[in-house]
Amino acid sequence: MFKDFYTQRGEYVVISAEQASRFAKGVAGDYNPIHNPDARRFCVPGDLLFALVLTKFGLSRQMEFRFTNMVGADTPLKFSEADDGTLHVCDESGKGYLQVVRSGDITHDADVVEAFARCYVAFSGKNFPHYLKPLMEQHGVMFNPKRPLVIYDSMGFSLGRLDGFSPGLTLNHSSLEVHGKRADARLEFSIESAGEAVGVGSKKLVVSGLCDYDADEMAAIVEEFYRLKAAYESA
């Protein structure tokens, strides 16, 4: 499961820039330039760390993920469970990148875990332009077009059951709170299976370097997004 997107080296997981970029585009549909292998500020997608946590520790009924630092290419990462059950992703020096608190029943059923991981990642990958552009336009702000920075802060969900479902995620509500040069975006979603509600969740993003909304600048950014998408899909 997702084994093409990392390399296991002893107790550490190593993710190359190429693997991370391929996951972002091919699995998440995320064409954020920060995930391009040649990006000056390259980082591994948080959704790949999310997927690997589920792969290694299973899917719990309740899970809360908090991203604390951005992961660079080829960083040796250790996925571990503390005595209190909290999950941690840290590098060799102990620097933390992700902390996960979970509770309730756990399933290790590979089909269920992979289905949920892929479903969430496909939803999450639509941050921009699908969810963020309308929010920024509504509030009259946008990220710096020359240095767009959207940081994955946290996400969590609660599931009513873990057995026999093929999940789908739907955005229920979105909001943007502006604080000077940064803003917090919240995306609330429902989790369904065969038309039945099986859970709820939410995701928080931090948008930095805010400036006044410029329709022409935003149109150019969106156009570039779809150009990159078309180029990847035709390759």
TrEMBL record:
UniProt cross-references to InterPro entries, sorted A to Z: DUF3581
A Pfam entry, by short name: DUF3581
Superkingdom of the organism of origin: Bacteria
Protein name according to UniProt: DUF3581 domain-containing protein
Organism for this UniProt entry: Vreelandella glaciei
